[in-house]
Amino acid sequence: EDQVTQSPEALRLQEGESSSLNCSYTVSGLRGLFWYRQDPGKGPEFLFTLYSAGEEKEKERLKATLTKKESFLHITAPKPEDSATYLCAGLHGSSNTGKLIFGQGTTLQVKP
Amino acid sequence: DAGVIQSPRHEVTEMGQEVTLRCKPISGHDYLFWYRQTMMRGLELLIYFNNNVPIDDSGMPEDRFSAKMPNASFSTLKIQPSEPRDSAVYFCASRARGGEQYFGPGTRLTVT
Fold this sequence. Notes:
By secondary structure, chain A is an all-beta fold. Chain A has no helices and 11 strands.
């Protein structure tokens, strides 16, 4: 069964304290691994797509990496405005399928 | 582009009433998705369309739920009759060629 598992469920950091969020997946023929950020009361906001093991993408203080079994979202020197829930999702490998398998998310709180 | 547009943003209704949620996807996107999000169950895929055709409705919880996409720029999700357990945030998303989905702001539904 296709599954995406995120850990930890919640993470509290002090401003400037770097850390990583984990996303483990078992998705048949993964065609892409996606990271989203969701703020309270808003829809998920697209951050990154990773297509193959070894790929990395960066945006400001965030860097996403991908291996054959998991993805990491590294947060370097976070600021309070990075506080949000981060979701990862895998795109199933079957042709013509647009379905994303979402994890439960990691809620990040960055304290000043 | 204005992004994915959803209406209404908030809906409060009484049990047994019909509820219709509306979505306008991003122009040029050929996939449209309806999700439901709750604290307990996270983000659940209800149904998705490709080129206005329903592809997978296995996530629709019951026959009380129905969705249509009469053209490329409009979709509806209808609940009839509504029940308190339907209370959730409903998101619409449309998909770009790269596979990433772009979410609307959501409709917060409360059924009393």
